[in-house]
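Bumping my old thread because nobody answered last time. Still need a sequence for this structure:
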């Protein structure tokens, strides 16, 4: 028996990094998946890896900053499997530590669109389905330690991750009270080895200096986050609602 047998899950950002690790782990745990990403090439690489190992998944290209794309993604779960049990919002983009005086409007809008609007759209669509199901459903939003600190990202990234935590807590407070089977929790990763962190360049010197002053070089693996997401998505955490689970190797307690 897998921890997610007979569960249907949607995972955003599944083409790479933490989301790809989560999709692979969920498939091994028995979930039926809808995997989504903006990058079709990497998305279908993840799909091939899952199906080659005997997992069940379908893929849909999705720009989570667009409400119509998100609605189509959630509907894909219903069309393919008839229900939705788990939503894992893992897609995210960084802002190269840009300060408020140096960030462009285009970069600001893209970061807020993906990191804040994406979870907002998908959580809203998922909640409507969860309310119709006696079994409810579980949402896991990937935030960041930037969601409760000021120097782990630039201004847009930090704003977006504070918003993700606020979204999570609001859903838990409103819908957990109504139906304890509807849950929303968040993960706050520290510095993780992903393509997003490996490709960072053109730092804003103001943001880079502030980040450097936090004094940590600890790095985790995508699988560390995937395991945490699996716990919060599964029935192992059925009485956990509205929490923010920090997975940062002790960075924020130093």
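Sorry it took so long. Here it is:
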């Amino acid at each position: 028996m897998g921890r997610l047998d007979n569960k249907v899950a949607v995972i955003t950002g599944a083409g790479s990094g933490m989301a790809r690790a989560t999709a692979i782990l969920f498939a091994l745990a028995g979930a039926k998946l809808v995997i989504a990403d903006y990058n079709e090439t990497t998305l279908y690489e993840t799909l091939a890896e899952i199906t080659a190992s005997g997992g069940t998944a379908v893929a849909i290209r999705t720009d989570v900053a667009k409400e119509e794309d998100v609605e189509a993604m959630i509907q894909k779960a219903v069309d393919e499997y008839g229900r939705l049990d788990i939503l894992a919002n893992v897609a995210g983009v960084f802002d190269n530590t840009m300060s408020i005086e140096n960030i462009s409007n285009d970069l600001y809008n893209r970061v807020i669109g993906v990191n804040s609007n994406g979870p907002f759209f998908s959580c809203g669509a998922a909640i409507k389905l969860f309310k119709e199901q006696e079994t409810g459903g579980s949402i896991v939003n990937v935030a960041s330690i930037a969601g409760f600190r000021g120097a782990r990202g630039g201004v847009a990234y930090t704003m977006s991750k504070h918003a993700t935590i606020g979204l999570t807590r609001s859903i838990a407070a409103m819908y957990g009270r109504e139906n304890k089977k509807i849950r929303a929790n968040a993960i706050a990763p520290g510095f993780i080895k992903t393509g997003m962190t490996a490709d960072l360049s053109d730092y804003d010197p103001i943001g880079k200096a502030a980040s450097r002053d936090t004094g940590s070089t600890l790095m985790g693996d995508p699988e560390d986050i995937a395991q945490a997401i699996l716990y919060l998505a599964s029935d192992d955490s059925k009485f956990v609602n509205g929490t923010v689970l920090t997975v940062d190797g002790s960075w924020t307690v130093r």
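The chain has a mean pLDDT of 90. Let me know if any region looks off to you.
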